[in-house]
C-alpha cells in the first residue's frame, strides 16, 4: 500500500504537482491495448459506463468508493460548446447544470429560480506574446499593450462581474499574489508614449490565435473583440484567428502558437506550482512565447528546492515582480468560474479550483 516516487532533485512542490499525476491500470492497458481510451477505469467516485463521441459520456456511482458512494446514481456529461444551446437545455430540463453561462443571461436565470455560483480561484486569462516577433520583442511595446486595455470595463460590463481585473501574473487566489506587484492598469496616454519611445508611434499589426470555447476560456470571442478595439485606439491592429480548443491544445503542448500567429490567448492556472517553470523558465514546457530572464530562472529553481511554504511563495512573488516588468503576457482578467444549477440540485459547494466534488450533490425536489 506504499507508493515511492523518486525525483531528479529536491522537489518542494511535488505535493501540488502530484494532483496531475495520472496512473493507468496495467490490467486495463493489457486487456484493451490501443483501445484503452474507450474503456477508462479509475478509483474515483464514478465508474465509466458508456461513451457516444460528440454526444455524451455516462457514468454510474462507484458504490465502493473509499470516500463513500455519491448521492446521485448516474452522471451524464454532454459537450455543448454553444452557450445558447447549453442554457436552452438547462431551461428545458434536459440538463440540471450548465457551465460558463452568458453573463448577460445571469440576472434572468437568477430571477427564474436557477442557482448561479461564482468564486475566486487560481486562474488567469492572458495573451502570451511571441517575443521573437519584432514589435513584441521590445518590453516597452509589451508594457504599452498592457496599459492600453480596459480590464475594469471588461470585468464589470461585458462579463457582469463573473471575472476580476488582473493587474499582475498570479491571481489574487494564488499564494504568490502580492498587491505591491500590481503593475498593470488602464493608462492610454502612457501606452501611446511608450509605443512612440519604442519607435511605433503609428502602431503596428499583429495576429492572435484564440479558442472558440474550452475549459476556463470564458467568452473568448467577445472578450478578444473588446481587446482588439482597445488596442486599435493606440494604432495596434490585431487580426483574430479563431481555432478549435482541442487543436489549440495540440499545438501548445508541442511548443507552438497555432496558425503562425504572433500571440495566443489561452486560459491558464498556477494551481500546479510547476506551472511557473512551464510558463516562464527559459526552457519551459509551455513557454510558447520564448520568454527568458536568467533572474527568473534562478528564482524558480530556488523555489523548487525551498520546502518552507511561505518562503517558497515569496520566491514566486519575487519572480512575479520581474515577470510583470518584462510583460511577456497581456494579463487581462481572472475568471470567477460561473456555473448555473437547476433549482432541484442540492449540496453543491463552489470550490476555489477547477476540481469539482460531485459526491455531495443530489437532485430532487
TrEMBL record:
Organism lineage: Bacteria, Bacillati, Actinomycetota, Actinomycetes, Propionibacteriales
Domain Solute-binding protein family, residue spans = 2-269
Q: Which InterPro entries does the record match to this protein? A: SBP_5 (IPR039424), SBP_5_dom (IPR000914)
Protein known as:
ABC-type transport system substrate-binding protein
Under the heading Pfam families, the entry gives: SBP_bac_5
